[in-house]
Write a structure and sequence with these properties.
The protein is an alpha/beta fold. Helices cover 38% and strands 19% of the residues. The protein has eleven helices and 14 strands. The two termini are 34 Å apart. The model has no long low-confidence stretch (mean pLDDT 95). It binds uridine-5'-diphosphate-4-deoxy-4-fluoro-alpha-D-galactose.
Length: 343
């Protein structure tokens, strides 16, 4: 018998696995599609949330979205109601060095996915987009209606998909919610899942690795920006608050609402130096910081206005405070200093 399910691509990754946890807590049936190149099988197994029978179920299909036959089979052998699409490469620096790798994975895979959805009659998709679609912001906080002008191929590939989604809606009636994330951070409160990228490039896990003695120091990329302390300012959002936004987006599509774009951040900016200080406070450990050159492509300030999703979908972040976000990340990294390979 077919069970109606939500298909989550990249569900073994960082934000994907937290969204899968959110979905099964909401008693959803989930099928994860992941090639496990960057994702972790353990990130899904640990989503079984203590074997609680009141939660939904998750199954993993290992395969690549560039494999059209694999996709066709995934859609024909399961009754897919909606798709949440995370699978993508995410490293800005690598995308500048190797743009075609990013177009190939991030754009072509999504076109295959949309084709499979169209062929199977699936008409709902929640898409994982990014603040990188804006490039250098016109205004702070950034509104969804502000100009999009990416400064790197990663942002370009996400914007290209956003545009394809608009035309797929127009022609085939595939409705979408595009979520433009600011800086995803923190870990699940259960302590079972968290951030494990290879290589790690994100600020909070790198500062925590320094607190753990796995790194000598944290490099501050630029201290001469036009910001209060000269270091870059970002809007950090807890990964479980992001995950909940995906569930709310899915529900809005189920209610038959129109396609939408929403920013997701907490609307408050923290500088690199402030983040390092919060990690020092939370961990109680000394952390050596050194000034380093600017990282190419980094805008000085990125802070979101998330008023639209708060108003329209009643999104309310539960862990907006940076100390809370860092505390959840600290719990995860302290207990899994080598990420999922510890378990
Ligand atoms: N930073 C350092 N030292 C480090 C690492 C980062 O100073 O060792 C700084 C960066 O220069 C930046 C800030 O810390 O100013 C945050 O950097 P992250 O790499 O953690 O996050 P980004 O803001 O660069 O990137 C995030 C997402 C990307 C997305 C981007 C959108 O991780 O996927 O937001 O702007 F594209």
């Amino acid at each position: 018998m077919f069970i109606v399910a939500v298909l989550v691509t990249g569900g073994a990754g960082y934000i994907g696995s937290h969204t899968v946890a959110e979905l099964i807590e909401k008693n959803e049936e989930v099928i994860v599609v992941d090639n496990l190149e960057k994702g972790h099988r353990e990130a899904i197994i640990s989503n079984k949330l203590n074997g609680d029978s009141n939660v939904g179920n998750v199954n993993l299909l290992v395969g690549d979205l560039r494999d059209k036959d694999f996709l066709k089979e995934a859609f024909s052998k399961n009754d897919i109601e909606a798709v949440i699409h995370f699978a993508a490469y995410i490293e800005v620096g690598e995308s500048v060095a190797n743009p075609l790798k990013y177009y190939n994975n991030n754009v072509i895979s999504t076109l295959n996915l949309l084709t499979a959805m169209k062929d199977a009659g699936v008409n709902k998709i929640v898409f994982s987009s990014t603040a990188a679609t804006y490039g250098e912001p016109e205004n702070i906080p950034i509104l969804e209606t502000d100009k999009t002008f990416p400064t790197n191929p990663y942002g370009e590939t996400k914007l290209a998909v956003e545009k394809a989604l608009r035309w797929a809606d127009n022609a085939y009636g595939i409705k979408h919610v595009i979520l433009r994330y600011f800086n995803a951070s923190g870990a699940h409160v259960s302590g079972c899942i968290g951030e494990d990228h290879s290589p790690e490039t994100h600020l909070i896990p790198l500062v925590i690795q320094t607190a753990l003695g796995k790194r000598e120091s944290i490099k501050i990329f630029g201290n001469d920006y036009n910001t209060p302390d000269g270091t870059c300012v970002r809007d950090y959002i807890h990964v479980s608050d992001l995950a909940n936004a995906h569930y709310l987006a899915l529900q809005s599509l189920r209610r038959g609402e129109e396609s939408k774009i929403y920013n997701l951040g907490n609307g408050k900016g923290f500088s690199v130096k402030e983040v390092i200080d919060v990690v020092r406070k939370v961990t109680g450990r000394p952390i050596k910081a050194e000034n380093a050159p600017r990282r190419p492509g980094d805008p000085a300030i990125l802070v979101a206005s998330s008023e639209k999703i708060r108003k329209e979908l009643n999104w309310k972040p539960q862990m907006a405070d940076l100390e809370t976000i860092v505390s959840t990340a600290w719990e995860w990294h302290k207990n899994h200093p080598n990420g999922y390979s510890d378990k």
